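Journal club prep — side note

Before the paper discussion, L.F. wants everyone to see what a predicted structure for a comparable chain looks like in C-alpha cell form. Sequence:
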Amino acid sequence: MAYEIVMPRLGWTMEEGVFLEWLMHDGDAVKIGDLLCQVEGDKAVNEIESFESGVLRIPPDAPPPGAKIKVGTLLGYIVAPGETAPFEKGGGSPATAAAPAPVATAAAPATTPQSAAPARSNAPTISPRARRIAGELGVAWEGLKGSGRTGRIVERDVRAASAAKPAAVPASGQLRISPLAQRRAAELGVDLQRLVAAQPGKRIEVADIEAAAAAQPTTDATGPLSGVRRIIAERMGTSAHTTAPVTLTTEADATELVRLRRAIADDLQGTNAATPTYNDLLAKIVSVALSEHPALNVSLIGDGLVQHAAVHVGLAVDTERGLLVPVVRDVQSKSVQAIAAESARLLEQVRAGKISPDDLRGGTFTITNLGMYEIDAFTPIINLPECAILGVGRIVARPVVVDEASETVAVRKMVALSLTFDHRLVDGGPAARFLQRIKQLVERPYAWLTR
C-alpha cells in the first residue's frame, strides 16, 4: 500500500508552508529515517524524514520548489519495490487526469506500467548546509560530484570546489548574493540587478540589502506581510486585544549576580562548557520564584485555567526572520550549567533557521531581554496563552544609597525588571509579590544556587 507524503503541520497555528526542494530523486530507494524533502513553516526550515521504507515516487503534478501550499497537501508517495504508484493507475492523479495528453514529438518503444522504470532526474542532490555554504562561497554546485551517501553533495565537496577555483572578479551585473540576503531583498523590495550593477564584483550581503532599502524613497505602497511577520502581527494583536495587561516595574541591585557570572565564566575558561548568560541565570531565578508563587505559572486554554507543575521558560530571540521564542523545558529541575547548554543549543538552531517546531511551543513563562540595546525599562507583551512575561533592561553602574542612616553611597550594578501579567488570570497582589521575589533572588544569588 502506498504511503502518502504530505505537507506537515510544523506549528499549532500553521495553515500553509513553502515546499523548498526534494532531497532525493523520484525512484530512489528510501529507508526509515532518510531525509526526503525540505519545507519552510512559519518559523523555520525543516527537513522531513521518512517513516516508511520503500521507493520514493514523485507525481508529475507535485508542488514545484518554492510553492506555497496548505498543510496536508500531497507531495509524493513511498511505495513497495515493484508497486505501481497511485498516480500511474487509471490515468494519473486527479490533477493530471483532467489535463490533455502530451503530444509525442518522437516515436518511442511502448512499455507497460509494470516494466516502465520510474522517471529519474539526473540533477545532483545537495544537503541544505552544503547549499548554504555554496551560496556563501559563490560555488556553482550543480556541476559538482558528491561524495556523500548516494552521491549527495555535502559541505566538504563545496569547500573543496571553492578552494580549487581560481580567484576572479565577477563581471559587472553578475549576481553574487547569499540566500538570506536574496530573501531579505524580496521582503524589502530591493532591485538586485541595480544593486549588483552599482557594486560590480562585490558579494551582496544582508547589510547591503538593508542599506539599499533605507536609501529607497518611501512610498505609500502596501503589500502582504511575510510569513513570520504575519504570525507575529496576529499573535501580538491577539494578546493586546484579549488580555487585561498590567505592567509592574522595579529596580534590583544586580551587583552580586554580575560577580557570580564572572566567577562562573572564570571557572569555565579552557573548557567546552557554555558560559551561562544573564538570561540563563534569570531563567533559574524565575523557576524558583514560580515554584513559590505558582499563581503566575498558569495558562488560559479555551475557557479553562491550566496550572502547570513544571516550569518551561521561553527566551525571546531577535532573528532576521522575526521574533522567535525557543523554550527551555523543566527549568525547575535543571542546574544553571544544564540551562546554559540547552539555551545555547536552541539559540544556535533558531538563528540558523533550523529550530524544531517542538522547541518553540509549550512555554509557561517568557523572559525578554533588551539590555544589550541599552534599554533601561519597557513594557513587554504577554506571550499567549501564558499568564506573564518578564522584561529585563540593561545592567548599568551608578551611585546608589546603600545605607540611609549613615548616608553611605556606593557604585552598584542596577537593573530594571518589568513584569507584564494578565489581570484576568492573577491579581496585582500575587503578581507584585512574585516580582518582589525575583528582585530578592537577583540581589542574593546564594538563595537559589543550591536548588
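L.F.'s comment for the group: Residues 91-121, 166-173, 218-225 have pLDDT under 50 and may be disordered. Keep this in mind when we get to the figures.
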